[in-house]
Amino acid sequence: MSTEKNTSSESISKIKSFRKNIPSAKELTEGILNGNKTALGRAITLVESTNITHLNRANEIIENCLTHTKNSIRVGITGVPGVGKSTFIETFGLHLTALGKKVAVLAVDPTSSISKGSILGDKTRMEELVKDPNAFIRPSPSGSSLGGVARKTRESIILCEAAGYDVILIETVGVGQSETAVHGMVDFFLLLKLAGAGDELQGIKRGIMEMADAIVINKADGDNLKRAKIAKTEFTRALHLYPPKENGWIPKVLTCSALENKGIQKIWELVDTYLEENKNRGGFQLKRREQNKYWLLQTVEDQLKQSFYQNKEVKVLLDRLLLEVMDSKISPFKAAEKLLALHQKELK
Amino acid sequence: MSTEKNTSSESISKIKSFRKNIPSAKELTEGILNGNKTALGRAITLVESTNITHLNRANEIIENCLTHTKNSIRVGITGVPGVGKSTFIETFGLHLTALGKKVAVLAVDPTSSISKGSILGDKTRMEELVKDPNAFIRPSPSGSSLGGVARKTRESIILCEAAGYDVILIETVGVGQSETAVHGMVDFFLLLKLAGAGDELQGIKRGIMEMADAIVINKADGDNLKRAKIAKTEFTRALHLYPPKENGWIPKVLTCSALENKGIQKIWELVDTYLEENKNRGGFQLKRREQNKYWLLQTVEDQLKQSFYQNKEVKVLLDRLLLEVMDSKISPFKAAEKLLALHQKELK
Q1: pTM of the model
Q2: Confidence of residue B153 (pLDDT cuts 50, 70, 90)
Q3: Entry's InterPro entries (chains A, B) (predicted)?
Q4: In the list A217, A243, B34, B337, which could disulfide-bond A255, CB 3.0-4.6 Å?
Q5: A24: in domain
Q6: Residue B142 CB neighbours (<10 A)
């Protein structure tokens, strides 16, 4: 018991000293703009905090940094667990730092708080990259809602860009709607796949194929090489079934072995080609502008819904009317009317 | 000029006498429950009206009819213009009335008011069915928003079912999100296609394939027969790429010639098999309950958004902040906060 007490008072003093040492928004902004990793990390901690005083400081830093973002590239990377995302990001990231680029790695993983599955959490999975002075790796923010996690990641991107990172890699696992969120914050979206037992397309989540700017078949090494080539053909054929993208880009399929560092260069060259084509045609800036618009409207609509669904009185009536509607005792439209009238009254 | 005057006063007296003769909600409900087509038609006119006094009466009729709906089947039919939807519905409808079923035909066409393209508007396209005493055909309601048109159609379904129609066919053109709306109000969703030049899958709208419970290749006659068979194979293969439906149904591909009345029976048999399997497994009622829930929540969320986007003060600020957000002068989240604060103030 005395140990507990000690620990507790120790913790308190630690927290107090930490609080004392939290630099101001201005100091953190300056640190970020000077490329200071510690300042960047602390600012992201503020962004991720649910403490309201932290939130205000975080907002100030973000607004300060917004006008300082440089010409960075945001690449989304998705794939089911086991596809080798960490190894891929390690190899890909090291390839980029060797080219003289500064690389930041972020993650969107709305499941991490539930499953404790640590996307990027286990930094030792990227042993080399984490030691690279030109790399910044940040584990997935915690949070139960995808909206919250996505928002935090999206704001962290702004900070990383202000800190001078040239390439921001955003990892996500193929769970829930997280790909859509990541797709909405990146310039290039990369789907990692494995060569399987021949029927590659079965079990691909709906909508993922449409989002991908490139499909990379990883672990194309050893015994897998032949199967990877077959998979490449099948995916190329399948991609052909989708209508072309608005910006005219036709998604490509590549193979690589992150473990043996093979095919990595080609992937970066592909991203580069994409960016060049897209910047020349104006699609790059257009997409970013559309993404900003999307996040504004999305946030507004999410909040409007939250204000409705989280109202206690509305909740009670909704539960009752849902049952009546499902049993066809009242029409859905009449029920909606009643609910909206109550919500209106509650707001006043 | 004097002619104009006459016409005008004639019209006025006509409208007046029509108004006088509008029966009460109770009378119309009784008429509907007795299977009276005129009463049904008049009630649907009330449903489609934007006049607020009509709306109240319409709501009363709908609530009255809700508990009287029988075991009808709702079938959605979609396909691009030229695929032969009208001929198909005529032949399919006559096949059903010959089986002793009462058939109602409704339409969701959010474009009709703009393009004047008359989905079901030209009733002469269904010459035989329109004369059939066991068929009721209603042209697409007018309206500029899909939400409005879909709502009207969905409420009209309730009335048709109360009037004893066994099969409700809901037609839509492959435009905008209308298929999603129709898919959300039917038990079975049928996609009409033509055999083309070989590359059948190109140009199919995203998401349509996933929604279809059956694909029917129409105009499989004469010179087209061989191509229709090839298309059937290709579609069957493509459907195989999608994950199975929640209810376990594997979508089927059939060919038919509505013009020569070939293959129509097989289509109805397929719908019948689907319904039997689905009712046994409980999927039928579950889907209907889920659809009711969907329409309730969808209506609530649409209205919440409308109240926001239609507020004049909010509109002005939104226009300004959208520009700032797109130019990265303010973060989307900060902008959303400002907008929601203003909206909140406006509501009070």
Answers
A1: 0.76
A2: very high
A3: GTPase_ArgK, P-loop_NTPase
A4: A217
A5: yes
A6: 16
